[in-house]
Amino acid sequence: MAPLTVLTWNLQGQAAEQVGLSAVLARHQPDLVFLQEADASALAAEPSNADWLAHSYTDGAAGSWPGMAILSRLPLRRASTLRLAPDIWDRPRILVASVAHARGELLAVCVHAKAPMPVPFLHAGPRNRQLADLTVWLAEQSAPGQQMVVAGDFNAVSWRLDGLLDAAEAVGSADATWRPIGVPWLPAVLRLDRVFVSPSIGVNSLTVACASSRSDHCPVIAEIELGDGRHYGPSLMMVSPPNTNGSSI
Length: 249
What we know:
Blueprint (H helix, E strand, L loop, with lengths): L3 E7 L5 H4 L1 H8 L3 E5 L3 H6 L4 H4 L1 E5 L8 E5 L3 E7 L11 E8 L2 E9 L12 H17 L6 E6 L11 E2 H4 L22 E5 L4 E7 L11 E6 L24
């Protein structure tokens, strides 16, 4: 099948047009989009985003304000907000979707880990526990032939997910993705945003498009090649937490 283009981007709570989302979508034509700090109503209000809103899932209560989203040009068979251990996660910070493609289904996981603030080296504990818990959950979903893409704002300059490949490292790239203020001319200084893939998925390229972004985060675009996948079984059914605002648009 044709390569699949995946994009992840933290919009810093800005309106889609203010941050430059439509221009980035038009230029890179991603098949699967992971958004953090994204306003669902603003996404839906922009007609040029229609191709990516045909199959989508958003939750205004997930991650940091104003929410998170998975947009897809491929059908989503299931989608949900995932809540793991409540003593570790201060709020829902993971969206999960099963994406239908020619070879089966792809598990798409959008992540926005807690920022280690106000002093990163003193306040990294909650984020580290969240990412460790996520790693355990992902391992529980793993099975021969199953494929997944895990992408988002990990708020960590150095983190690996056991059993998955960092797409940037797979192509020998380690470009930074975050800068202190969201101006297109300012170079990024930290790599906080990542795309991880199953070992059976090939990575053709990875681009960090800072010059296209008015957010403090830069869009990260990976072109991947899916291997032979299989249908996900009942173990991957996703359950929304009580009182979630998750919705499809």
